[in-house]
């Protein structure tokens, strides 16, 4: 099925966002593992896996629409040098993703591609959950203080 060129371009932009997020989360995850924060390592690693699944869905949809998935482009990747900065960088990335998915959902509706819109809506729900998880961690840090919070992240 030949898809709308503007929508395919937008899907490729979302794909670049997802591929960038995978890299950012993997680096943050491995930094946490290196510091001994096994619970944060697992959370960040799981988020990277979710983003991989989003990338997979986007690639499949681009191919279905007879487009060419562009996997060689990344957006800016922001690596935090400590846990609060990592969460800040991840929160900003998720905020940007939510804005981009909302715009893509509007575009899919405008071009009457409701199947693509539904796929994007499901991914948007995951992105909403990601930002909620990040804000939960940020709240825990503000309530407990960073040193106490970090003691809760050691061990599996």
TrEMBL record:
Fe cation 2 binds at residues 51, 94, 127, 130. It catalyses: 4 Fe(2+) + O2 + 4 H(+) = 4 Fe(3+) + 2 H2O. Its EC number is 1.16.3.1. GO terms for biological process: intracellular iron ion homeostasis; iron ion transport. Pfam families: Ferritin. Residues 1-145 form the Ferritin-like diiron domain. InterPro entries: Bacterioferritin (IPR002024), Ferritin-like (IPR012347), Ferritin-like_diiron (IPR009040), Ferritin-like_SF (IPR009078), Ferritin_DPS_dom (IPR008331). GO terms for molecular function: ferric iron binding; ferroxidase activity; heme binding. Keywords: Heme, Iron, Iron storage, Metal-binding. GO terms for cellular component: cytosol. Fe cation 1 binds at residues 18, 51, 54, 127. Heme b binds at residue 52. Iron-storage protein, whose ferroxidase center binds Fe(2+), oxidizes it using dioxygen to Fe(3+), and participates in the subsequent Fe(3+) oxide mineral core formation within the central cavity of the BFR protein shell. This is Bacterioferritin.
């Amino acid at each position: 099925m030949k898809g709308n060129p503007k929508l395919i371009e937008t899907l490729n932009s979302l794909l670049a966002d997802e591929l960038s997020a995978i890299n950012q989360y993997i680096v943050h995850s491995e930094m946490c593992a290196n510091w001994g924060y096994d619970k944060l390592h697992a959370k960040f690693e799981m988020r990277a896996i979710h983003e991989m699944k989003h990338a997979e869905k986007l690639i499949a949809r681009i191919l279905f629409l007879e487009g060419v998935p562009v996997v060689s482009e990344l957006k800016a990747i922001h690596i935090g040098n400590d846990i609060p900065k990592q969460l800040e960088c991840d929160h900003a990335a998720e905020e940007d993703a939510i804005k981009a998915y909302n715009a893509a959902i509007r575009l899919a509706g405008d071009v009457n591609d409701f199947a693509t819109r539904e796929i994007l809506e499901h991914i948007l729900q995951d992105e909403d959950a990601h930002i909620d998880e990040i804000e939960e961690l940020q709240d825990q840090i503000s309530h407990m203080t960073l040193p106490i919070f970090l003691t809760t992240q050691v061990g599996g």
